[in-house]
Amino acid sequence: MIELYNVTKYFKTGGKKKYILNNVTMTIPSGVNVGLLGRNGAGKSTLLRMLGGIDFPNSGIITSPNSFSWPMGLAGGFQGSMTGRQNVKFVCRIYGKSDYEIEQAIESVREFAELGDYFDMPIKTYSSGMKSRLSFGLSLVFDFDYLIIDETLSVGDKNFQEKSKKALRKKIENCNVLLVSHSMPVLKEICDVGIVVHQGQINYCETIEEAIETYNNINK
Amino acid sequence: MNKRTSMEIFKSVVLALFLREVQTRFGTKKLGYFWAIFDAMFMVLIFAGLKSLISAKSMPGLDFPVFLATAFLAFFLWRNIVTQSINAFSANKALFAYKQVKPFDTIVTRVMLEILVSSVATIVFVMIGLYFGLDVSVKNFNMVIFAVVWLCVFGFAIGLVSAVLSYFYEFYAKVIKVILSPLMFISAIMYSVDSLPPLAREIILYNPLVHFMEMIHGFYFKTLDTYYVDYEYMMYWTLIPLWLGLFFYKRSEKRILSS
Question: Quick one: DSSP state of residue A169?
Answer without folding.
Answer: H
